[in-house]
Amino acid sequence: MRIWIFACCLFTSGICVARADLTITQKVEGMGQNAENASRFKGGKTRVDTSPGASIIMDLKTGETISLNHPQKTFLKISGEIAQAAIDSVKKMQGEHPDAKSALTATGRKDSVSGYAAEEYTCTIAGVKMALWLTRELPDYQAALAEMSTEFSRGPMAAMMQNYGFDMSTLPGFPIRTVLEMQPGQTMTRTVIAVSTKPVPEADFEVPPDYHEIAAKTLTPPAAARSLPTP
Question: Residues 214-221: what's their mean pLDDT?
């Protein structure tokens, strides 16, 4: 379960860029998945539509997270304080694992991914073998990586990312394709297929007026951690 959640975290957080209005469309394949979804970014907020029926809106400045359930027209709001308390609680339960990873290593393989020249790097984190196809052709990719690192520090799986010492800002390129080997012979692949800088409507980061809130005031930090949305 820990490895599975870690992988899901990479598949969403690995594309979180919040410098300006931005929409990234990706395709996820493998392990029973074959779908496209879009992530939108504006003014320090990010929205990921994890499925046709669910979306996650996060304020990267405060850590507040809102999970939308579209079929039921409900939403669950987790404050930044509760989210941080949950992260700290999970970190304490997990303990420190700074060495549970291998160094990022260039394989020498090159390819064109979605029109961008990319180079393959490999590593292992939390038992998951990863192949990252990194490109330096995406404009301002260094700033994008810095924003991705910020999202990791605020996201629902921040405790795991911090415990395993994963720092997205140190990558030598933008991850245009990510391949995770979940089990021998079973992989999940995320490929960024389109990047748009067209203006994103403010309404995309707001709760629709006809949605009603699910109370979260009774959640303790560990419960809050379990309630934080994952894709």
Answer: 59
**What mean pLDDT is predicted for residues 15-23?**
60
Residue with tokens 């990706």: 26
Q: Is the dihedral of CA 198, 202, 211, 227 positive or negative?
A: positive
Torsions phi, psi for 24 (to 5 deg):
-115, 125
Q: Which two tokens stand for residue 103?
A: 């160094």
C-alpha angle 44/47/51, rounded to 5°? 165
Averaged pLDDT of the chain: 77
* Coil vs helix vs strand at 167: coil
CA–CA separation, 149 and 156 (whole Å) = 13
Model confidence band, residue 127 (pLDDT cutoffs 50, 70, 90): confident
Please, which residues have CB within 8 angstroms of residue 1's CB and are 6 or more apart in sequence?
none
Flag whether the pTM goes above 0.90. Answer: no
Query: Which of helix, strand or coil describes residue 211?
Result: coil
Task: Determine the length of the chain.
Answer: 231
- Domain 2-226: give its CATH code: 2.50.20.10
Average pLDDT over residues 13-37: 73
**Cβ–Cβ < 8 Å for 173, 7:** no
